[in-house]
Fold this sequence. Notes:
Heat Shock Protein 90; alpha+beta; Helix Hairpins; Beta-Lactamase; rod-shaped; five-stranded antiparallel sheet
Amino acid sequence: xxDRVPARIAAAFVAVxxxxxxAVGAGLFVSLRSLHQDATIASLGDIAQPIxxxxxxxxxxxxxxxxxxxxxxxxxxxxLYAVVGERVIPADGSAPxxxxxxxxxxxxLAAGASAGGTLSATDGQRLVxxxxxxxxxxxxxxxxxxxxxxxxxxxxxxxxxLLRVLPAVSTVVAVMVAPIxxxxxxxxxxxxxxxxxxxxxxxxxGPTGEPIAPEGPLEVRDLTERFNEMTxxxxxxxxxxxxLLANIRHDLKTPLTVxxxxxxxxxxxxxxxxxVPRAAAAIAQEASRMERLIEDLRSxxxxxxxxxxxxxxxxxxxxxxxxxxARFGPRAASARIxxxxxxxxxxxxxxxxxxxxRILGNLIDNALSIGAPGVHVLVEAxxxxxxxxxxxxxxxxxxxxxxxxxxxxxxxxxADPARTGPGTGLGLSIVRALARAHGxxxxxxxxxxxxARVTVTLPGVPVPDGASAVE
Length: 471
């Protein structure tokens, strides 16, 4: 089997062409053989007419002598017989090689009329015959026929004619098939070559280029569309990776600069006395910040590889909200931000406690990160239908920048440093991953006239027996 598509298409069309030529040839052979047999029968009939005229009035006794004399005027390959009733009389006096029953003549055929066909002689030879009625049924001897035979070479003649015709037929088929094969091959290979050329750019680190316009057969168009979707997703991943590296570079530069500065001050003695604890505190603070960045990256990696192992248990949403607000209370107070909790009493939920605490912590941290004094942050827990619970964190700050709501949950996305502060852009991505791991969802919206709200909905999933881990 050829390796290239054009060669395979050409081979397929050659095979189809050969089958077509053979089919046409077989049909032509049958038709030509029949025509040659008919021509031979007609020729024998023409030869028989003068003989019939001379022998019609003869009786059976005189007929043998008459046809014996007439045989000398015929070509050697022709046979002349008289069929009297069921008896066959050869003109050359030899043993008859055909039976009277093998000569098929309609019973109502008039005297002087003829009929023809083919028969098998007793020696196995195929013969073409023409039988003329000399006399219809007689009272004594029955019907008398004059039969002329010739070897049935219609097959050989038909094959000879066919060999003359087939080259022309093959040429016509080739002329018709070649452009179709070329067009079909081009319609398939051209878009495939474009795909191959575009694929060569995929390993490069930069953008994969403009989408390829689908063309060609349906399967090739589907392949092109899938390729465009793949390259679009790859571009998005690469863009996220670039953003991640830029964010990590930015977020590591500041703490490393602080750590290096204070370490240098401790080494050369610039920080001494009361400055030593302050330098140590700064180093510890920046180390904690880098540790948090690493933890966020680990959480994102777990979410991206389906590595989140949830352990559902019965939790009190109101208690979780109150604990989260209490945990961030000192930070909110130091930033002069009003942080309050408002949860419906009597709520219950089956969820992973640590995951819900992480969700609330990330949402509150995101709201406090604007850092503007006087902002109000409200953390709520509300009951929904079918036992689901909605956790909402809203503020009256600047809100999400226009056009960013579609991407606020994307990994590494930082819509506005003023909104996200010194974070990594991973907090809301982790929130959505944890919500979806529970079978819930996270949604962000802007409030009028100012402010934003993030709502996390968790379904009321029953606690599994034994509180086993759920992937």
